[in-house]
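Need residues for this backbone.
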């Protein structure tokens, strides 16, 4: 029945918290690989969780992806009340379709909640020289400073090869990701099974070290197919990370332990 299923979810949340030493775990019912409404539930859980964690002044950095897009879709006008919020994209272009890009998502969040946002105009897959000169642009510097001062980070976690393919990764880079046995991806960084960084996409913005200074870090990812990716990412992730996931991914995370 419903009560035992709610109890089951709660037990899984507690087990996952212990297993990965995390602050908080939220699990929604179902498998987002199988049904799109489960991904919508993940989005709602993100919106609620962020709302509960708002400070008087907030800089919220958000990555791209189909899951964080659902977080934007779940936000409403009563999101921040009289608190100050500015949404910023966590990183520059990563090769995603426009609708899944961090810039589009923060613009949507700002529009839906009536708050501010900033955009990061950085091309995808930039060369070392472009990278260095872009960092000197005053308008870009300003947004990068905001990202570094994020009070909350909301990021997705993806399966490495799926993400590399979706982003039309150049062949040489794709081979590197494969050779280094990347299994997980988050904010443009690729991680191996031990949760170590094995590759980073050459764009600007959020660095893994920046997570330590954020008040809250929310990792959102669901679906049975992401089980291994989430497990690997969490092995190296800051222990203050809040995990928002679904039942199918949670079962995978608990299975091999
Ligand atoms: O940056 C993208 C995420 O790592 C995963 O994207 O939420 O569409 O699976 P997704």
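Answer:
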């Amino acid at each position: 029945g419903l009560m035992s299923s709610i109890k089951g979810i709660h037990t899984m949340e507690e087990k996952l918290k212990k297993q990965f030493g995390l602050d908080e775990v939220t699990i929604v019912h179902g498998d987002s690989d199988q049904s799109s409404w489960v991904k919508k539930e993940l989005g709602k859980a993100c919106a609620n969780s962020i709302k509960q964690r708002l400070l008087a002044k907030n800089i919220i950095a958000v990555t791209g992806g189909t899951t964080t897009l659902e977080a934007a879709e779940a936000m409403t006008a009563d999101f921040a009340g009289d608190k100050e919020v500015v949404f910023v994209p966590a990183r520059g272009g990563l090769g995603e379709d426009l609708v899944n890009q961090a810039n589009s998502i923060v613009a949507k969040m700002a529009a839906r909640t009536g708050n501010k946002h900033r955009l990061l105009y950085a091309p995808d897959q930039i060369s070392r020289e472009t990278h260095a000169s872009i960092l000197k642009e005053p308008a870009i510097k300003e947004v990068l400073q905001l990202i570094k001062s994020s009070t909350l980070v909301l990021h997705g976690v993806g399966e490495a090869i799926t993400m590399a393919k979706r982003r039309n990764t150049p062949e040489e880079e794709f081979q590197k990701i494969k050779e280094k046995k990347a299994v997980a991806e988050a904010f443009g960084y690729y991680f191996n099974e031990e949760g170590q960084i094995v590759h980073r996409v050459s764009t600007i913005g959020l660095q893994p070290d920046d997570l330590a200074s954020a008040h809250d870090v929310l990792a959102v990812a669901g679906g049975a197919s992401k089980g291994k990716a989430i497990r690997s990412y969490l092995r190296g992730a800051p222990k203050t990370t809040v995990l928002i996931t679904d039942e199918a991914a949670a079962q995978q995370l608990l299975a091999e332990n």
